[in-house]
């Protein structure tokens, strides 16, 4: 490859880098960037060597001007050429970054991402939205946590309806006929169903969160970890899978700077709250709900008992997540990307989401009524 070809590739790679940053950074002038990238590609593709030699310096200057602020805001860890190659590689490997985004772990290898989100910690596999999704992102434990709070909200919502309905029936001294009995039974079913799903969902969130902490630490430190530590963070021990209880105890020993165990879960005499209740009581209810057997914990309960268990386990799970986080990352505040594990705040967000959905239903009903009136 002669010098002119190297220079052409260097300039074109600036355009590729510009494309990446344009779809990544919110409020970028994406239309202008698209025009510049497209025109650069077309010019280099169809123009003669003489034309390219004549106009390349001007094109390079424009591209440097357009990329300068991005580079200042997100200092490079790799060269522009390397970033362009890696960006193109995602497409060649069959990925669809514009639809599914890119992982934070991939991006942080290319550049300093500390100013991309106002988070004190971002999981390695956190998915970053691009183009129309720029500025947004998510990761599995986030929507599992949202799932859990969503089912908790519905549990309490339905239980509140049941209590109000019972009060109305009592006020009217109404006898419970077959129709009313069916209505009450339907409500009780919804309450118990949502309660079971709440316990399953919060347990799933904790398992996902613990796995996420382990995976992120593994990916970011794999070069300095011993083989046994790698296996532990993969959730393995002698080719067998570690239980959630074991992961909580073993992960902290790998992740903590002093390599000590602060949360003991393997010794029934040393395990403390909130882990004691999480594993000794509620894990049994969760297991019975997932793969029931008459020999397991009873899941035939009154709605009132299910609601009590669902709310208790929800708060307990948040405590478990927070305690595990604090032990692994003592130097950090509670994780921003998970609402800092502030229960009331997370509950309110989920409550607002349900109200928003209900409002949509009202709008649809009003629109249908207006249509009928016409």
Describe the model:
With 374 residues, the chain is mostly helical. The chain has two domains: 3-138, no CATH class; 141-366, no CATH class. The chain is 68% helix and 3% strand. It is built from 13 helices and five strands. It has helices at residues 3-24, 30-46, 49-73, 80-92, 97-100, 104-110, 140-171, 178-221, 227-233, 244-255, 275-290, 303-328, 343-373; strands at residues 102-103, 127-128, 137-138, 236-237, 240-241. Strands 1-2-3 form a three-stranded antiparallel β-sheet. A two-stranded antiparallel ribbon has the order 4-5. β4 and β5 form a beta hairpin. α7 (140-171) packs antiparallel against α8 (178-221). The longest helix has 44 residues, at 178-221. The radius of gyration is 28 Å and the shape is flat. The relative contact order is 0.08. The model has no long low-confidence stretch (mean pLDDT 92).
């Amino acid at each position: 490859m002669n010098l002119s070809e190297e220079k052409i590739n260097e300039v074109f790679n600036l355009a590729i880098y510009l494309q990446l940053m344009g779809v990544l950074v919110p409020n970028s002038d994406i239309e202008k960037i698209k025009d510049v990238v497209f025109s650069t590609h077309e010019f280099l593709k169809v123009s003669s060597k003489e034309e390219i030699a004549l106009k390349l310096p001007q094109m390079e200057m424009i591209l440097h001007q357009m990329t300068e602020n991005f580079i200042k805001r997100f200092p490079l860890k790799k060269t522009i050429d390397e970033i362009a190659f890696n960006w193109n590689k995602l497409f060649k490997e069959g990925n669809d970054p514009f639809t599914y985004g890119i992982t934070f772990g991939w991006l942080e290898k290319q550049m300093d991402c500390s100013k991309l989100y106002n988070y004190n910690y971002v999981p390695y596999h956190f998915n970053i939205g691009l183009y129309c999704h720029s500025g947004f992102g998510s990761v599995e434990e986030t929507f599992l946590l949202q799932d859990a709070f969503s089912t908790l909200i519905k549990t309490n919502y339905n239980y509140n309806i049941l209590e109000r309905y019972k009060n109305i029936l009592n006020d009217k001294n109404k006898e419970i006929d077959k129709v009313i009995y069916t209505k009450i039974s339907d409500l009780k079913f919804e309450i118990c169903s949502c309660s079971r799903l709440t316990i399953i969902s919060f347990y799933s969130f904790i398992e996902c969160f613990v796995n996420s902490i382990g995976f992120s630490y593994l990916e970011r430190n794999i070069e300095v970890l011993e083989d046994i530590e790698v296996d532990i963070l993969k959730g393995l021990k002698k080719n067998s899978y570690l239980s959630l209880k074991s992961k909580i105890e073993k992960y902290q020993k790998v992740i903590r700077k002093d390599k000590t165990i602060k949360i003991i879960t393997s010794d029934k005499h040393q395990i403390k709250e909130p882990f004691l209740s999480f594993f000794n009581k509620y894990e049994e209810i969760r297991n019975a709900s997932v793969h029931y057997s008459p020999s397991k914990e009873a899941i035939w309960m009154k709605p009132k008992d299910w609601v009590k268990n669902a709310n208790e386990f929800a708060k307990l799970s948040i405590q478990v997540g927070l305690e595990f986080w604090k032990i692994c990352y003592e130097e950090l505040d509670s994780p921003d990307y998970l609402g800092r594990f502030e229960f009331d705040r997370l509950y309110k967000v989920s409550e607002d989401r349900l109200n928003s959905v209900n409002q949509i239903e009202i709008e649809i009903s009003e629109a249908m009524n207006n249509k009928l009136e016409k």
